[in-house]
Amino acid sequence: MVNIYDAANQLASDLQKIDEYQTLKTAIEAVKSNEDSFALFKKMDKIQTAIMTAQSQGQELTKELQDEYQSLNEQVQKNEQILQLLKAEQGLYKTVEDVQKVITQPINDLYEGLRN
């Protein structure tokens, strides 16, 4: 019997060796090393978490929260370190998405006869 978790652990290890991962790691280190970028990232992350929590609980977003998010988003758009981090993150998640499609293709193939 195949131990799929060994393959998953190998995949996780391999992921850390690809360029997209290394680019994100470097971008994160750049944000951490810049006090202003780091503080701004932490604020934005806190606001995004609050928004996601409210949405998952079916709550309306307060005007204050919306305004704070808008203001922080404008600041983020002017911060080169955070912009590089977001770009790197997108690149890595694109790769992860592509791998996920490959992994789930056999499952999709099982349903092929049911969907026609």
Question: Can you describe this structure in just a few lines?
Answer:
This protein is mainly alpha-helical and 116 residues long. It is built from 6 helices and no strands.
Provide the β-strand percentage band. Answer: under 5%
Order of helices and strands: HHHHHH
| Rough outline | extended
Q: How many DSSP helices?
A: 6
Tell me the structural class: mainly alpha
- Helix percentage: over 70%
CATH topology-level name: YheA-like fold
Q: Regarding CATH, which class?
A: Mainly Alpha
CATH-assigned homologous superfamily: YheA/YmcA-like
- Overall number of strands: 0
Largest sheet: none
Number of domains: 1
Poorly predicted sequence stretches spanning 5 or more consecutive residues: none
Distance between the termini: 32 Å
CATH architecture: Up-down Bundle
- Write down the overall mean pLDDT: 94
Whole-angstrom Rg: 19 Å
Q: What features would you highlight for this structure?
A:
116 residues; mainly alpha; YheA-like fold; 0% strand; extended
Give structural notes.
- With 116 residues, this protein is mainly alpha-helical.
- The chain has one domain: YheA-like fold (Up-down Bundle).
- 84% of the residues lie in helices and 0% in strands.
- It has six helices and no strands.
- Helix 2 (19-33) runs antiparallel to helix 5 (80-110).
- The protein is extended and about 50 Å long.
- The model has no long low-confidence stretch (mean pLDDT 94).
